[in-house]
Amino acid sequence: MLDVTRASMLFARAIILVEGISESLLLPAIARRMNVNLEEAGIAVVPMAGVDFKTFAKLFGETLIRKRVAIVTDGDPQVEPADLNERPRTGAPVKNTNGIIEPCSRTRGLVGEFATNGFARVFASQVTLEYDIAAAALDNGLALYDAWAECYQRGSPRTLTRAALEAETTSEARALLLWRALCLGTPAHGKAEVAQEFASRLELKDESGALVVAAFVVPEYLRDAVHHVVGGNPAIA
Question: What is the pTM of this model?
């Protein structure tokens, strides 16, 4: 089970375990927006190609391998029934009576599994990576859309326009539109491709040296995950 990618965790000072390629492409760029260089700090970002975190995370703990581990996973909440053949697609994460989006049983179980582990901790999104990026701030959704549109050599996404996104006045509403298009839909360009483009744009500068995506806000769960692994890293503590 320890292939070349996963074996890197044994030589790192700290580890961020993620579900797939999208998170592994974006985390280093997002961390640099927090003034943290994961590579220089010896922090490995390891994709699990799924959600089987327990097998690997159980290697770490007070009486085991004493390395800080951040398990970054999706909340994957229940979704309201919707006709996915509709255009644009509908559907929304279910909220409880307090207006809170509750994570799925898998995510809740994972959080409970490591609740008392001082080294390995779980950091879950509300919904998915894409939704939470857009929901973190009003302009985040526009930046993510621009990265998606850049993947098209001609034209732009047919299922969502920038104008429709701009018409929404809350970050949650914009997040919902993007999530429906990117995660519920079947766009011509997949999430990994969009993540790669977005990671590049997060570090892109104009001729004056200013960041093109100037107002990006890091989602709270990703910020907390980076802080967790950095907090136990003597290289930058």
Answer: 0.89
**Structure tokens, 124:** 């879950």
Judge contact between 165 and 178, C-beta under 8 A.
Answer: yes
**120-124, strands of its sheet edge to edge:** 43-47, 14-18, 68-73, 120-124
CB-based contact 92:79 (threshold 8 Å): yes
CA distance 122 to 113: 9
- Residue 14 φ then ψ, to 5°: -155, 165
Q: 84-112 pLDDT, tens per residue?
A: 566 556 788 999 989 999 999 999 999 99
Distance CA 229, CA 181 (A): 32
Cis-peptide into 88, omega within 30 deg: yes
Helix %, strand %, coil % of the chain (to 5): 40, 10, 45
User: Cα–Cα–Cα angle for 72, 135, 124, nearest 5°?
Assistant: 20
What are the tens digits of pLDDT across the range 193-207?
A: 999 999 999 999 998
Q: In a 10 Å sphere around its CB, with 0-12 CB exposed, 13-18 middle and 19+ buried, how is residue 35 labelled?
A: exposed
Q: Rounded to whole angstroms, how far apart are CA atoms 72 and 131?
A: 14
Separation CA 135–CA 10 (nearest Å)? 34
Rg (CA), the chain: 18
Question: Residue 100, exposed/middle/buried by CB under 10 A (0-12, 13-18, 19+)?
Answer: exposed
The residue ranges of every structural domain in the chain are 4-231
